[in-house]
Model the fold of this input.
Amino acid sequence: MNRILDKQRRRLKRRVHIRKRILGTAERPRMSVFRSNRHLYVQVIDDSTGRTLVSAADLEKSLRELKPSVANAEKLGETLGARLKEKNIAQVVFDRNGYLYHGIVKAVAEGARKAGIRL
Done:
């Protein structure tokens, strides 16, 4: 139990350290990834107004069959990229939220790149 709490504290510490340097603007919003053991959430945030511009999660009806795996994370990134294109957003700042840039988190970024979004 203590090991799990330490792991969470380390991730939150990394998250705070990353967020000191990353800021989303209206021209280049922040793309934040959150993953749990069961689900995967991605949202694009304009930090200057504090609003979520676009979001995608595997809880949505159209994406419900997706489970948190690398292949499905790439599909989720492509879906989010398509939604960003509809809103005329072509460039974002990637916020890995304290997670390692590896596996699922990397696949979300690659999927968004496939959709034509510059990270």
In short: Residues 2-21 form the longest helix (20 residues). The domain at 2-114 is CATH 3.30.420.100 (Nucleotidyltransferase; domain 5). The first strand starts at residue 30 and ends at 35. The two ends are 36 Å apart (CA to CA).
